Amino acid sequence: MSGRAQLMWDEDVTGYDFGPGHPMDPVRLALTRSLVAALEVDRAPGLEVVAAKALGDSSLRLVHHPDYLDAVRAASLDPSSAQERYGLGTADDPAFAGMHEISALIAGQSVGGAEALWHGKALHAVNFAGGLHHAMPGSASGFCIYNDPALAIARLLELGAERVAYVDLDVHHGDGVQTVFWDDPRVLTISVHEHPSTLFPGTGWPEERGGENAEGSAVNVAVPPGTGDEGWLRALHAVVPELLGAFRPQVLVSQHGADTHFEDPLAHLAVSVDAQRLAAESAHAWAHEHAEGRWLALGGGGYAVVDVVPRTWTHLVAIAAGAPVPKETALPEEWRQEVYARTRGTTAPWRMTDGREPHWRGWEEAGYDPADRLDQAVRATRRSVFPAHGLLP
């Protein structure tokens, strides 16, 4: 099913480091890349490892305001000069030396992957260092400096794409991407996230459905805290496939934040690595069914940096490469030793699975249960946006 795939990777992206104690520990990127290598996923016949260049200002300005770029560059040279009015120098987004260059490099990997898809050099591209979906046009937010998903989509539009779909599976609402394309009917943004009343950034209500010129282009599924595998997968499949079928995207961009996991310290869902793997398989299938196979897959949040993130994103890379890793696969001992050394004694998991077999009830088959909070959330979204696409709620 997979054709040519690219893993977008430059070792320097691990310099995206907000400092000791910050949840966005770059060790999660290093450990993911080393697990990809330890399992020999990067040797799959269908996968090429590619490093793209950092974005220059002309590309960054496709999404970000010039004064914001100036502020990031200044804070990158002198972190003490960071301006909080631009979201810099805050607890979430402390300034660090080289911040501009490394953020532009991460964005470059996502844009480079998008260009490869559009020009036919690859069918799938993965940048697990990307998915920084909270950054706004004029400010940093939520551990995100430059919004690489929005930049990749904007570049696709610049190249001539007429319809791009964005599916965000992070536990947090994809607010920055939604904001950028709020009034653009060429972009369909779908976010499945924990309810905004209980989690940052407090947006992503089902009533948020796009601007005057793009009614129904923003789709938000706000699932209740505590939602596990069955409910999360049910919500995903109750909304995404029908909308993609109606929208007919030329490219699918998906964001695979691993912070929906039950071990994640910053959120309140109860999803397993096994369900996250199934979601990646679904995104892959949707790309082939609805977007001629063009699939850009990005990382995102994920703060269980040893137990969860490396396994989830290695599965993602392997699926894109056409060489999925069997879920019962044991984690290589050399990788487990690396985890111990890099994290000063943390014990790594043993297998590529949480030992779960996720199943979910299909929306059409099982019907709507008005007493179920998850079904209420799905129903609210379908009622809000499905009619704009000619679909029955």
The number of helical runs is 12
Main β-sheet, spatial strand arrangement:
2-1-3-8-7-4-5-6
From the 3D structure, determine the CATH topology: Arginase, Chain A
- CATH class assignment: Alpha Beta
- The tally of structural domains comes to 1
> How many beta-strand elements?
8
What overall geometry do the principal axes of the alpha carbons give?
Answer: globular
Features:
eight-stranded parallel beta sheet; alpha/beta; 12 helices; 10% strand; Arginase, Chain A; single chain; 8 strands
Give your account of this protein's structure.
With 393 residues, this protein is of the alpha/beta class. It has helices at residues 27-38, 57-60, 66-77, 99-118, 148-159, 175-180, 229-247, 273-290, 309-320, 333-342, 363-366, 373-385; strands at 5-8, 47-50, 124-127, 164-168, 187-194, 218-223, 251-255, 295-298. Strands 2-1-3-8-7-4-5-6 form an eight-stranded parallel sheet, with helices on both faces. The protein is globular, with a radius of gyration of 19 Å. The two termini are 32 Å apart. Residues 22-318 form the Histone deacetylase domain.
Question: Concise description?
Answer:
Residues 22-318 form the Histone deacetylase domain. The protein has helices at residues 27-38, 57-60, 66-77, 99-118, 148-159, 175-180, 229-247, 273-290, 309-320, 333-342, 363-366, 373-385; strands at residues 5-8, 47-50, 124-127, 164-168, 187-194, 218-223, 251-255, 295-298. The chain has 393 residues and is α/β, with parallel strands linked by helices.
